[in-house]
Amino acid sequence: MHHRRRSLRCALFFSLLACAPAWADDVSGRWHQQVEAISAGKGTVARGDAIGARLDTLGIAWKREAFVRGDQAGENLVADLGGPDNAPLLLIGAHYDKVAVGHGATDNASGVAAVLELAQALKAKPLQHHRVQVVFWDLEEKGLLGAHAWVETAGREQPALYVNFDVFGWGDTLWMMAPDSGTPLVATLREASAKEKLGFSPGDKYPPTDHLAFLKAGWPAVSFSLVGGDEIDPILAVFGGGKPAQVPKVMQVIHSERDTTAELDASRVDDALRVVEQGLRTWDHQNAH
CA-CA distance, 55 to 229, in Å (whole number)? Predict the structure, then answer.
């Protein structure tokens, strides 16, 4: 009996180890530097080059995938992190284009840098039961065109889950677009957020961004932002056509000349990314095939 209890304890230990985040260092400095490098680009090509340079440094092969949708042409950037042969796909992404004004630091170099940090962690310690691919979308600001073109491409593999990042720039709360707040993934993220003393707000009310292209196709998708918890209700009010008494910071910064690295606050970025990574590793373990 003692041997059996010891075996069970060992099994539990190795299960938790498999789900543990890969990094133990502070990622906020790298994240901030990457946001600076991307948002320094004056156009989409330069922003893409900054992303490619980071992937090259990480030893991650990537490519540009051109698309045309309507009268608009763009390029999504695609990188494979590998994984078990014939395993289902986990897709992680963020849009890298910006509007004409500002530097697009918050919207959305912040989300791109978050994906790059996760790419580093998932390359260093691969998932056991899913292949991983990261994609950086073009022309989100023109109507989610890069994501729509991806989903509509004939023969495209449907992912087991698409995980989106948009506006991951400051605050004390991990805001999650989750069509169903009762899933095991949400439960895991809630527990991990509590351990990090980070706010967590899941729900199906969320600003429009690239996850919508996947949900429209009937493909599973979630999305994450890092903002102040007190901003969420006013943000939703603005997108609902209302006029909150206090305009949230997000709505003052994005799509304006203020969208620079000066508005960023990296103090909880590492905590938030640890929570997301922990959630994805547990999800991978729970969805073993």
Answer: 32
- Residues 6 or more apart from 196 whose CB is under 8 A from it? 271, 272, 274, 275
Identify the CA nearest to 23 among candidates 118, 132, 113, 127: 118
- Compute φ and ψ for 252, nearest 5 degrees: -80, -25
- Distance set, CA 213 to CA 70, 78, 190 (Å): 16, 17, 26
Residue 208 CB neighbour total at 10 angstroms:
13
Choose among 178, 133, 126, 130: nearest CA to 156.
Answer: 133
pTM (two decimals): 0.91
At 79, list the tokens.
């990188």
Q: What is the per-residue pLDDT across 236-249, written as a single tens digit (0 to 9) for each? A: 999 999 989 889 99
**Cross-sheet strand order for the sheet of 221-227:** 62-69, 72-82, 131-137, 89-95, 161-168, 221-227, 173-177, 199-203
Q: pLDDT of 113-136, one tens digit each?
A: 999 999 999 999 999 999 999 999
Name the token pair of 282. Answer: 């547990």
